[in-house]
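Good morning C.,

I know you're traveling, so I'll keep this short. The sequence:
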Amino acid sequence: MTLALGNGTYGLFAVVYFLALIFLGITSLRKGHWIMFLLGIPIPIFWVIGAVIPPVERD
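The tokens, ready to paste straight into the viewer:
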């Protein structure tokens, strides 16, 4: 059994995915993980990691 999705559904998934990656990328930058942000440009899983781990300790 296959699930038939229209082009509009794929477009909606693409927009949600893009917005989630932008949100996670900015979250990782705000937490001080700028290297994770840069690595996340070609490999988006680093944005998820950077957004989940605790912020960088600053003196």
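Safe travels,
E.
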